[in-house]
Specification:
The chain is α/β, with parallel strands linked by helices. The chain has one domain: P-loop containing nucleotide triphosphate hydrolases (Rossmann fold), CATH 3.40.50. Helix content is 35%, strand content 26%. The strands form 2 sheets. It has a 6-stranded mixed sheet with strand order 6-7-8-3-9-10, with helices on both faces. A 4-stranded antiparallel sheet has the order 2-1-4-5, with helices on one face. Helix 6 links the parallel strand 7 and strand 8. Helix 3 packs across helix 4, helix 3 runs parallel beside helix 5 and helix 5 packs parallel to helix 6. The longest helix is centred in the C-terminal third of the chain and has 16 residues. The two termini are 32 Å apart.
Length: 245
């Protein structure tokens, strides 16, 4: 994790009179699982939208693999290796799980990869092999979240942005999702995780960025971040070890 796959300097986004993200700097090490936490409304989704090109920057720069991505539209960012798994999964309901994942394999990074091999690997990582021939409609929330990760992984990204993949999951499903994200990282894809489940965040992340009201207030290892007085005041409410499960 000696090099950064994604970096931001002075990243700012304003919507008319509201500044949602203000002068945020970040460095995401290649090969890491990088966490992003903060209160509701802190600007986490806005920051992801800036990285994927859904919103244009007001000011600042974002560089991926050393190159500025500011001029690139969303689809081009995916083609160069940035994928996003959304909190609310919206698969093609009439298609099977396998067919949904195949869509990602067909429209991801160009190259000589065998789409069916990519699909099989994505299904295995997400633990969806037994559901591969089921239609997406009627899947449980946990299975839909896994499908979202599998579809994103099938685009063959170097960086996967995972937006609250554990939200609403029970403890068993959360553990399965954490293991899924570890498998993604172990196969060479850097993961940037937004999540409110602090047990999951601290167990899986190598480094965590904390924002509040659109501004960076802390960055460091999980141990450093959960002990930071600014993070406790703005987000945790009390030291993590004192919180009751």
């Amino acid at each position: 994790m000696s090099e950064n796959i994604l970096s931001g300097r002075g990243v700012t986004k304003s919507f008319r009179g509201l500044t949602a993200i203000q002068d945020v700097d970040f460095d995401v090490p290649a090969g890491a699982i990088f966490g992003l936490i903060g209160p509701n409304g802190a600007g986490k989704s806005t920051l992801f939208n800036l990285i994927t090109g859904y919103y244009p920057l007001t000011r600042g720069e974002i560089r991926f693999s050393g190159e500025s991505i500011s001029p690139l539209p969303t689809y081009r960012r995916n083609q160069i290796g940035i994928a996003r798994a959304f909190q609310i999964s919206k698969p093609f309901p009439a298609l099977t799980v396998r067919e949904n994942v195949r869509v990602g394999a067909m429209f991801g990074r160009p190259g000589g990869s065998d789409p069916e091999k990519v699909v099989d690997e994505a299904l295995a990582i997400a633990g969806l092999e037994e559901l591969a021939d089921r239609t997406a409609e009627g899947l449980t929330v946990g299975s839909l979240r896994k499908l979202e990760i599998a579809r994103a992984y099938a685009t063959r990204p170097s960086l996967l942005l995972a937006d609250e993949p554990c939200a609403g999951l029970n403890p068993t499903e959360t553990e399965e999702m954490v293991n899924c994200l570890r498998k993604v990282r172990d196969r060479g894809t850097t993961v940037w995780l937004v999540e409110h489940d602090m047990k999951a965040v601290t167990s899986i992340c190598d480094c965590i960025l904390v924002i509040d009201a659109g501004q960076k207030i802390a960055e460091g290892t999980p141990q450093e971040v959960v002990a930071d007085p600014k993070v406790i005041s703005a987000y945790l409410g009390e030291p993590l070890e004192e919180q009751v499960d």
